[in-house]
Amino acid sequence: MIRVNGQAIDSINARDRGLAYGDGVFRTLRTEAGQPVWWADHYTKLQADCSVLKLDCPDQGTLRDEVCQVAEAGQGVVKIMVTRGVGARGYAVPEVTETTRVVLASAMPQHAKSFDDIRARWCELRLARQPRLAGAKHLNRLENVVARAEWDEPDIFEGLLCDDQGAIVSGVMSNVLWAKQGELFTPDLSQCGVAGVARMRVLRAAARQGIRAHVDRFTPADLLAADEVMICNSLIGVRRVARLDDTIWLPVGWTPLLNDALYENLD
Amino acid sequence: MIRVNGQAIDSINARDRGLAYGDGVFRTLRTEAGQPVWWADHYTKLQADCSVLKLDCPDQGTLRDEVCQVAEAGQGVVKIMVTRGVGARGYAVPEVTETTRVVLASAMPQHAKSFDDIRARWCELRLARQPRLAGAKHLNRLENVVARAEWDEPDIFEGLLCDDQGAIVSGVMSNVLWAKQGELFTPDLSQCGVAGVARMRVLRAAARQGIRAHVDRFTPADLLAADEVMICNSLIGVRRVARLDDTIWLPVGWTPLLNDALYENLD
Question: Cβ separation of A10 and B13 shorter than 8 Å?
Answer without folding.
Answer: yes
